[in-house]
Design brief:
Structural class: alpha/beta
Radius of gyration: 20 Å
Oligomer: single chain
Strand order of the largest sheet: 6-7-8-3-9-10
Shape: globular
Number of strands: 10
Strand content: 15-25%
Helix content: 25-40%
Number of helices: 10
Order of helices and strands: EEEHEEHEHHHEHEHEEHHH
Largest sheet: 6 strands, mixed
C-alpha cells in the first residue's frame, strides 16, 4: 500500500524567506503521527500544504496514493482538517454548520442529519446547538471544528493544535474519538505544543526546526537516537528518568535546543 501521507522535497518560500525547506515525509496508513517544532519552525505552513490550503513553491504531496495538486477534489473527499483558526461560519448555528459540511461532502440528507445529531451529543453541544457559532467559546468552537472534520468519516485527519483552549473533560472526549478512529484504520496527523498529549497518543513523530526535518521515527527510535548521541552523564544532565527512558519533552529539547545550554541563561533585570 502507498503511504497515507507522502511529501517529496516539499518547499515553501515567502518573499525570499524559506519557511519549509525540501522536507520528505512518509506516513503509513493507520499511524497516529505527531508533527512537532518550536514556534515559527514551519509546522502550520507544512500542514497547510499537505491539505491543499497553500500551494508549495516546489515539491509534491500525495494522499492515499493520489497527487493532491492534480486530484484535489478527489483527495479532499477522504480527508478531514481542523485548521489553525478553525475557519467556522460564525453566523450559522452548530446544527446548521454540520448539515452544511455534511452535504458539501456528498452525504445524503438522512445520513447528514443522523451524524450531526450524534456528533452534537458526543461533543456535548446539543444544548448549545441553536446558538450562533459567533457566541461560542474557543473550546466549544474547537469541538465543533472537530465534529465537522469527521462527519464524513475521513481516512486521513489533519489536526492543527486541536487541544488548544479545550478543557480537560472535552480533551478526554476528543482523545477517545481519535483513538477509535485509529482503531478503525484511519491515519491522523497532529501538530501540538502539548508534548504530553503527543507522547500519549502518537506512535510516530517528526520534529521540524528552521524549516527542515531534524528527527523522524517511532518514539523508541527517537529515544534511542538521542541516548546514543549523549554520554551517560550527558543524558542524566538532559533529564533522563530513573528508568533510563527519555520523555518526549526531553527528546524534543535535546533535538531542537541542544545549543541552548552553551549560552548563559538570560534574566530580567528587575526579577534577578
Amino acid at each position: 500500500m502507498p503511504p497515507a501521507i507522502a511529501a517529496y522535497a516539499l518547499t515553501r518560500s515567502f518573499d525570499g524567506f524559506t519557511a519549509v525547506n525540501h522536507i520528505d515525509l512518509a506516513i503509513e496508513p493507520g499511524q497516529f503521527f505527531g508533527f512537532l517544532g518550536p514556534n515559527g519552525a514551519g509546522k502550520s505552513t507544512t500542514i497547510k500544504m499537505l491539505t491543499g490550503l497553500l500551494a508549495p513553491s516546489s515539491g509534491s504531496v500525495q494522499i492515499l496514493g493520489q497527487d493532491l495538486f492534480y486530484n484535489p477534489i478527489e483527495v479532499k473527499r477522504h480527508i478531514g482538517v481542523v485548521p489553525e483558526g478553525m475557519a467556522l461560519f460564525a453566523k450559522l448555528t452548530a446544527r446548521e454548520y454540520l448539515r452544511f459540511v455534511g452535504r458539501m461532502y456528498g452525504l445524503d440528507k438522512a445520513t447528514t442529519e443522523q451524524r450531526s445529531e450524534e456528533l452534537l451529543e458526543f461533543m456535548g453541544l446539543t444544548d448549545q446547538s441553536k446558538k450562533l457559532i459567533a457566541d461560542y467559546s474557543h473550546g466549544m468552537g474547537k469541538k465543533l471544528a472537530m465534529a465537522a472534520a469527521v462527519i464524513h468519516g475521513p481516512k486521513v485527519l489533519f489536526l492543527d493544535e486541536p487541544f488548544e483552549g479545550v478543557d480537560a473533560i472535552a480533551a478526554g472526549t476528543l482523545k477517545t474519538m481519535l483513538q477509535r478512529m485509529i482503531a478503525r484504520g484511519a491515519t491522523i496527523f497532529l501538530t501540538s505544543h502539548v508534548l504530553e498529549i503527543v507522547e500519549r497518543l502518537c506512535s510516530h513523530v517528526a520534529i521540524i526546526n528552521h524549516g527542515q526535518i531534524v528527527a523522524h521515527g517511532s518514539l523508541e527510535e527517537l529515544r534511542a537516537g538521542v541516548q546514543a548521541r549523549w554520554p551517560q552523564d550527558g543524558a542524566a544532565d538532559a533529564g533522563d528518568t530513573s528508568q533510563g527512558r527519555l520523555t518526549l519533552e526531553q527528546i524534543f529539547l535535546n533535538v531542537v535546543g541542544r545549543g541552548a545550554a552553551a549560552h548563559p541563561e538570560q534574566e530580567l533585570s528587575w526579577l534577578s
